[in-house]
Amino acid sequence: MGHLFEPEKLEAIARNSLGLPWEEMVARITRDLAEAYPGHIHQRPEWIMNLVGGAAGVMHILHGSLSEYLILFGSALGTGGFSGRYHLDIWDTMLCGEMYTFTEADVSRRVTHGPGETAHLPRRTAKVYQTTPGAWMLEYGRGPIATALPIGISGAVTSLEPLTILRTLRCYGQRVVGSLLKGKL
Known about the structure:
Blueprint: H1 7-15, H2 22-36, E1 48-52, E2 55-64, E3 68-75, E4 80-82, E5 89-96, E6 99-103, E7 106-113, E8 118-121, E9 127-131, E10 135-142, H3 149-158, H4 162-181
Antiparallel strand pairs: 1-2, 2-3, 3-10, 4-9, 5-8, 5-10, 6-7, 6-9
């Protein structure tokens, strides 16, 4: 089985939830994703602290497999840091708030992404980013996901935060096993 998700379709689904209060936004996007991808979206929110590249927020792992992941990520306070450099492509569709970025290719240019807009981080590239308070995004990763796990848990490791590490690995592991049982790599 190839890739299940397409960034353009995810962006269209995300746009259906723009402007809704937070709880309604989360419920709507989760429901719409579950309808579009039956059996592949974990619908019961399970928020996990996420510490990566100096940024701190929370995430809900909607889908996890060996080749794709889909999460809701955000912070009531805003956050920012280093994206990391991955062997996969990552698309972040803003649901509310804004995300500011710059890359090595143009260190003096700030790019702003607002609600309904998608930022693409191509494999083997990196960016610095900052989100406004209350910014939330739908994040989709495609490629060898296991190669991103060291960066994905690095902040929790250096913060000596074993519960966050265990919860992240348990949730992602459960999603992967569920995907494998459906024949999805």
